């Protein structure tokens, strides 16, 4: 359908809790198509509806042949509506993240290593998956958008946050 403008950090909608989806209809299908077109146009691993200006609890994600993440394990294409996330254990992994709404910036973010997520696909069919690693990281990052949270809010040490071009070759945790 269309590549939409991606909202940037500071825009009010990105700080709000998104509204639950109540209808699985043509309007939702059009939103998902626009999200997919936008995610691919910007080589994202995922995108949430609020990032394109829509307050709806919808995320999509996929990692396959992505030039931004050439060395990571593939993540299957998923449309996830009204997601619920349950951490499986308390183990956290630190990993570098970026975001289409925070262009040019990277930060070291702790995320749950393993989790279960549930929700619905674009047609209303249930989804229930247990995942770990980068897949778990992407899901947590995207669901944060639905709760008005951007990854810089999760960075524990601002020495591990900065412009991507300045961090190239340095993206490892700095000692305390």
For the record, the count of structural domains works out to 1
What's the story with the biggest beta sheet?
5 strands, antiparallel
Q: Percent of residues in beta strands? A: 25-35%
What CATH architecture would you give?
A: Alpha-Beta Complex
Low-confidence stretches: none
Distance between the termini: 48 Å
Structural class: alpha+beta
Tell me what you see in this structure.
- The chain is of the alpha+beta class and 176 residues long.
- It has one domain (12-167): Peptide deformylase (Peptide Deformylase, Alpha-Beta Complex).
- Helix content is 19%, strand content 33%.
- The chain has three helices and eight strands, in the order αβββββββαβα.
- The strands form two sheets. It has a five-stranded antiparallel sheet with strand order 1-2-3-6-7, sandwiched between helices. A three-stranded antiparallel sheet has the order 4-5-8.
Task: Report a brief summary of the structure.
By secondary structure, the protein is an alpha+beta fold. The chain has three helices and eight strands.
Give short descriptive properties of this protein:
176 residues; five-stranded antiparallel beta sheet; Peptide Deformylase; alpha+beta; three-stranded antiparallel beta sheet
